[in-house]
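To make the argument concrete, we let one protein speak, a sequence paired with a row of structure tokens, as a model reads it:
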Amino acid sequence: MSTKLGSVLAVAALSISTAMADVPNVAVDIAPVHSLVARVMQGVGTPDLIIRSGASPHHYSLRPSEAKALQDANVVIWMGEALTPWMEDAVATLSSEALTMSLLKKEATALLEFRESALFEEHNHDDHSDDKHEKHGHDEHDDHSDKGHDETEEHGHDEHAHGSYDPHAWLSPENAKIWLNLIAAQLSTADPENAGTYFTNAAIALTETDTLMTEVSAMLEPIRGTRFIVFHDAYQYFETVFDFPASGAISLGDATDPSPARITKIQDRIKDQGVQCVLAEPQFKKGLVATVLEGTDAKTSIIDPLGIALEPGPTLYPQLIRNMAKTLVDCF
């Protein structure tokens, strides 16, 4: 190899190394949001996933590698304290110098109020303005009131302690579309040189999400009008976007056991409405679901709102939404 060629290759290698070094370290809390960030960063870098697959985002103990990822992060993108209350202190302690963005605090994020009752009525989804979602600043979440709360219902839902709005907002592809541009803007602030790539990726992903929504709507069309029960109330964003409402939830929260009165209500709803499907989750209690199904002809399927069974990365989010629709179709 000539000295001149060797020098050229050395300079090229140094340039690539420098470019890679300039890409910000990005930490993301849950796999669905990590997927959106990974899609925006495609071709530039790979974000770190903080909460490992299969773990509850509500309660989590950081492993050393995850704490280091937060400590090394230049950018932290997370849902917010309503979903991961423990992470607020972790971010403040470990990522104090990083650019941080809580998606639930962004004004553009469409939020839905918690449904307190075991039984859902269809008007719950129709009372919202514009695109059936409410858009609220985070400060409004602290004014949670229990008016109209059924005295027979258990209280103390973990998420309720941090606001009155349901934090499972990633299950709305409409929110995902909004977040793609917010993510691109945040990354561009930290890494202006790659801003063009971030925004191009976000624009392509937005089109992909529109196609995904059309596909999922078509998948659900043959079973519209059927009724189903969910294990815990986490799916109303999906229900609202695709106009496919659930009839009730066995448990108020994924960490809360239902009262006997709530179970009785759900059993009566299954029988009275001819509910055909009860959706459990990967971590569900088999005995509890079996109790609910006693004396009914309803089938059960397992639905995965976090993509536990999927490989983290840019394709996880669309596959997650697609799999949710497929679970419903298969259950009926």
